[in-house]
Write a structure and sequence with these properties.
With 349 residues, the chain is of the alpha+beta class. It has a domain of 72 residues: Phage tail protein beta-alpha-beta fold. The protein is 27% helix and 32% strand. The chain contains nine helices and 19 strands. Strands 1, 2, 3, 4, 5, 6, 7, 8, 9, 10, 11, 12, 13 and 14 form a 14-stranded mixed sheet that branches. Strands 16-19-18 form a three-stranded mixed sheet. The termini are far apart. It holds the Pfam family FecR_C. GO terms for molecular function: sigma factor antagonist activity.
């Protein structure tokens, strides 16, 4: 019996109900990697969901979530997949055919149902996306299906399409910070990085660093050329083309993009070597960096300590190593209380 004929509607229904055996699950997952099975799969999803619908639907909210999904914007309800530190896993993805109107309609209908809050594990984001995530204090390297390399900084997350990545699309979503080495494809397909904010980075083949956290968004370019698009409002956006050695920063207050030339673009991703480069950086700013990367809480005994600045290259393979170096440089007292660190000047009361 061929793999195509071995997966029936009844078997899929058993799978949706969580009653499939391990062998059946493996057979279905192998079957789903075949592009020609996609339409039948979504037909079964739609039919099964209609037969198991037992709650009041919030259609407006479902449509809103579905539009976010097809626009490629990040979805916060995801199931993260941990990546082993400094690992280099390979992931096999099979190309899928371009969606027909019928398949889009089926996908829309199926999405409407399970996005209404249907609490079954199978209908989580992992059906459509693969998510890579790093813990606090960890750096991980992955190779994408198209051959591009990505190094994720600590406390960061990268999401890619599970099916067709590298063939139908090379779009990823980033939360945190990552360094990209993008390969050029024979068909000149663009590689797109979406951030949590209204910023999009488009490239063909190049090396760059993207920082996207609550306190801001920055893009640093080493080689090649990238296009950065900033959505200033629903009706207006601004686009800039970056050259090597440039740093683009989003000004959230004035809603503008600021591009500047830097002397040492290699410092954009010094964190990959466990180094932190500071240039007249205040301890208040360093506090935010440490809290983002190591998941700790830092407090200053007074505002004068927070206003002190420091310049130089510091080794930071661990938070203790970096704090010790800063304490010696600025003559600080550092006291650790569980997961909280209190910093004061040696002359403080």
């Amino acid at each position: 019996m061929s793999l195509k004929n071995s997966v029936t509607k009844e078997l899929l229904f058993t799978y949706f109900e969580g009653k499939a055996t391990s062998l059946q699950k493996q057979r279905i997952e192998d079957w789903m990697n075949e592009p020609e099975n996609e339409e039948f799969f979504y037909e079964c999803v739609h039919e099964w969901e209609l037969g198991n619908l037992n709650y009041e639907a919030d259609v407006k909210e479902a449509i809103k979530k579905f539009r976010r999904r097809i626009s490629g914007k990040p979805n916060t309800e995801i199931e993260p997949v941990k990546v082993t530190e400094h690992s280099n896993p390979e992931y096999a993805y099979s190309p899928v055919a371009a969606p027909t109107p019928k398949r889009v309609a089926l996908l829309f209908a199926a999405s409407i149902v399970f996005l209404l809050g249907f609490n079954i594990w199978f209908f989580k984001d992992f059906i459509f996306y693969k998510t890579f995530q790093t813990d606090y204090g960890k750096i991980s390297t992955i190779t994408l299906p198209d051959g591009s390399g990505v190094t994720l900084n600590a406390n960061s997350q990268l999401k890619i399409y599970r099916f067709g990545f590298g063939n139908l699309s090379r779009q990823v979503s980033l939360k945190g910070e990552a360094n990209f080495k993008i390969v050029h494809t024979p068909d000149d397909q663009k590689f797109i990085v979406l951030t949590e904010g209204p910023l999009k980075v488009e490239v063909l083949g190049t090396e760059f660093n993207v920082f996207s956290r609550e306190r801001g968004t920055k893009v640093g370019l080493y080689k090649g050329k990238v296009k950065v698009t900033y959505e200033q409002s629903a009706e207006q956006e601004k686009t800039v083309s970056m050259l090597p050695g440039e740093l683009t920063t989003v000004d959230p207050i004035h809603k503008t993009l600021e591009v500047e030339k830097v002397l040492h673009p290699e410092n954009f991703a010094a964190w990959q070597q466990g180094r932190f480069i500071f240039e007249n950086t205040s301890l208040a700013e360093i506090k935010k960096i440490l809290e983002e990367n190591y998941g700790i809480e830092i407090r200053f005994k007074n505002s004068r300590v927070a206003e002190q600045t420091v310049s130089g290259s510091f080794k930071g393979n661990s938070v203790n190593e970096l704090l010790q170096a800063l304490a010696e440089t600025l003559e600080l007292d550092v006291i650790q209380q569980s997961n909280r660190i209190v910093i004061s000047g040696k002359s403080s009361d």
